[in-house]
Each structure stands twice: as structure tokens, then as C-alpha cells.
Amino acid sequence: MKSKAAQLRDLLTGSVLNFLMEAHNGLSAKIVEEAGFAGIWASGLTMSAGLGVRDNNEASWTQVLEVLEFMSDATTIPILVDGDTGYGDFNSVRRLVKKLEQRGVAGLCIEDKLFPKTNSFIKGETQPLAEIEEFSGKIKAAKDTQQDSNFCVVARVEALIAGWGLQEAMRRAEAYHAAGADAILIHSKKKDAGEIFEFAKSWDGRAPLIIVPTMYYSTPTEQFRAHKVSIVIWANHLLRAAVSAMQQTASTIYKEESLMSVEDHMVPVQEIFRLQKAEELIKAEEKYLKSSFIKQPNAIILAASRGSELGELTQARPKAMLPVGGKPILARLVEDFRSHNIRDITVVAGYRPETINIDGIELLHNPDFEHSKDLATLACALQKVKDNTLIMYGDLLLRRYIVRDLLESDAPITIVVDSNVRQKITDKVKGDYVVCNVPDDRSIFRPDAHLVKCLNNAADNPSLQAHGQWIGALLVSGTGQELFKESIKRLQSRPDFSTLSVTDLLDDLVAVGHPPRIMYVSGNWLDVNNLPDVERASAFTQGVTYQRQL
Ligand code: SPV
Ligand code: MG
Questions:
Q1: Ligand 1, closest atom to CA 236?
Q2: Which of 117, 359, 383, 459 has its CA 20 to 30 A from that of 206?
Q3: Which residues are catalytic?
Q4: Which region among 149-153, 178-182, 525-529 has the lowest average model confidence (pLDDT)?
Q5: Phi (first) and psi of residue 2, to 5 degrees
Q6: Range of the structural domain that residue 155 is part of
């Protein structure tokens, strides 16, 4: 890829007419490039207007430099900057050229007026012109300073604007060319291109010629070609177009106090994101950020059951809404999840769903909750099973570190198992006991264990020793989402689906060769099944450590 300066030189010295389009900030510069233009005119008028000041050097040159840096960073095509008079003497110009090159600006145009200048279309004929010698010195200084030989220095002749005539314009153009200018910008404020064409004829291609047909815009472009113009600058049209659109939009919204009639006339927000290359950042985050941070976990809480063992306490509400320590269990879970940056929280309700009044959650419903078990409730939220989804029973209280550590797991499916609860399984035991490939060794780095079997159907396996109890929390991550969904589909095709629990899904995953990973914990959680549990739960919320032991 050619340097930007080399691209600008090609535009200037090529045999065809080229066009530079005005831009005044990073966004408009990008729009110019996307439209197909081969170069950008960083207009002094529009950059100053964009900053809300006059075209009278009210913005300092370093402030202009800042704008140019954004424009240059946003684009790959060359920028010719309108450097006014060079913001001072030859020495100011030297420093300017140095800074422009550092920022990837391809060329500088300076005009033969005095600092501070004013726009050529404001009382142009009364504006004093620079001494030819002095201005030629600036051009020499610029050429001597540039490091890249392709950097272009354009001398802008204001003699026609000031009404000093063709002869003076020619004299100046010649002097500036002799001083090293790479091109001459001949400016006019006339409504027709007559004086520009006269100049072009006299100039006769001694150096590339640039024109700015803002006032003589009705001249057919073909005539510019015929007069061997090298570059036409469309100097201010994006800013002017933006101003009409902004004025109209602002006034409509102000009058109507509504967005209804404007919305369809503007680009969607997505287009702004595209112009900003938002997509690129998302990809970079995937590459450079810690995976657990960018995966944005979500959570599904199963809160369908009433918990009838709690009697009157759950007459009017599901178990998850039972207040413990003054706050419903579910509200505690949601708070806990939010502290882990989990914003997308889905609760699947069943019994008395209208009592679940927690802000900011998505509420789904298992209408068949009375005739089905928790797997059917979970299936209601299947579309919410994604990469990094926490699934949890709604009657769980747990210390925060458990969720934190679970979110760190990178296994497809991870279940939390309390190894304090080791039990010779008998048919009297209730709870989701599990057999793992290795027991918990309680070391700092706990063993890399996986599930072998869930024992909720203990009577079938009287001899098995459980390694712990599944607490009712699991994480689905990465490829786990597909495994999880496939497993639910398999089980849904069974006629006894409504009698199945999440533990049946865990067993199914073992059966198909994808046993869930075990994250061992030792206590620090409890679920609420009966009245004594409610008391323990209340103590738990006050910080009392409760270890479930059978
Ligand atoms: C500019 O765009 O700032 C110019 C061109 O200098 S003009 O406004 O026509 O003088
Ligand atoms: Mg200007």
C-alpha cells in the first residue's frame, strides 16, 4: 500500500482530474473514503465550524492538529489540510509540517494572506495579502522541513479573491512555484469560472492546478477537465448537508416532543456502530480479554415449585419467594448474581407466578408445573441456555464465592457438589447424591473430578457410596450448550419426561460420554425444604456457617 503522501502526489501529478471531498472530523472523513473519494480536504472553514468557532484562527493550530489526527486515524486515503496562512511565520510552518507528517497528513495548503486570516468569502477584496518574498520563504521552509519527499506543499493564491487581477495572480503563482510549491491552488469567489479558466490558460500546466468551485459550482466538471485542472475540491458540502439535517431534525423533535416522525429518516444506531468499527472491538475482546469477563454470563433460576412441606408459609407464594432474613430467597440470589455482573436473569415460575415481583428479571412460566418436575421447568427456558449460563434452583442460599468459582470453570458442564455430605445411600435418603470418579481430597487445588452417577434413585443402587450432594447449581459453557440442549431433546422424547429431574439430564450426559465436571465445595450453602431449614437459612443470612451433615 502506497503511503498517503505518495497517494496525494499521484492525484496531483496524474493525467486525470481528481476530486477531494471536504471532511471536518473522523466520522465525516470516513464517510468521504467510503463514498469512493481518493482524498480528503480538511477544510479550515468546516473544521472551525464543527468546533463551533469562526474561520479566523480562533481554534489554535494544535486544536486543528487534534482534529486532523482523528481524521487521519479513521481513514486510509490522503488528507490535504487547509493550513490557512501556516498559523504564523516560516518557523510556525516548519513545526506544522513536522507535526502533520507525524500524524500521517499527506499535504499542506497555505494561502498568501496574513495571520489571523478570515475566510475568503467574507469581505475577500479588503483582505491584505502577504508579501511575495515572505510567503515564498514559508514555502521553502515547508519543503526543507518535510521528511517524506512525497509530502505535498500547495501554495494558494488569493490575488483573484482580493481583486488584484490575473497578472498579480500569475506573478505570485510563479514565485511560489519557484520556491518549491508542488501545486498552485487558484481561488475565486466569482459565480462563473471565467477568471479561473483565464488563469489556467496562462498557467499552462507549469505545475498541477487545484480549484475550489464553491461559488462557480454550476460550471460543468467537463470544463475543468478541458482546462487541465488536476484537482477539484468540494470544500464544505458535507458540513452544510449535515447542518440542514441537524437543523430539521432538532426542530422537529423539539416541536413534536417525540421521535416518531424523524426516526425513519435517519440511519439506525447500528450504522453508527458500523462506522465506528464496533465489530472489530468485539473480536479483539474475544482475543485479548479474559474469557470469563467477556462471556457475559446469564442465569436461569428454577422457581416453579411451591414447597408444600413448608405448609402455610408457602400457601400464597412459591418457595423461592419465601422471606429469609427479611428478603425473599430469590431476591437474594438475584442480588448475588448481579454482584457477579450477571445481568440477564431468567426465572421460570410455576406456582403463584404473580407473586414474583423482582425488577429486571425475565419471568417465564411452566404452566404444567403441577404435573411435571424440574427438568420440564428448565426446558421452558431452553432458549436461554447459552455460552456461560448458570442454572440454579430458586431455593438456594449460598456464599458468594461458590458462584464466583463456578463462573471460572471452562468445562462444557460443571456441577457444584458438596463433599461434606457423604452418605451411604439408602432408599430413605432424599437429595441429589452423586458418585464421582474421585472423592474430594480437600486440597487447595481440588481434584479434577467428573460425575459417574446421580443417586436420587437410591433404591436401585444400595451399595454405592456417594461422594457428595449436588447443591442444585450448574454452569453450561462453550460446547456445553449444544450438549445440554441435545440431552433435553433426547429426554423430551421419552414418555416419562414429566417425571424427570435435572439429575436425569446429568446422567444422560454421562451416558453419552460427556460427564459433567465436579466442582467440590464443603458446605457454605443450603436449600430450604422444611421448617427447620427456614430457621437455619435465617441464621445463614446472618453469617452463621451451616454445614449440612446427615
Ligand atoms: C476552506 O474550505 O476552509 C477553504 C476554502 O479555505 S474556502 O472556504 O472556499 O475559502
Ligand atoms: Mg480555509
A1: 2
A2: 117
A3: 55
A4: 525-529
A5: -70, 150
A6: 4-243
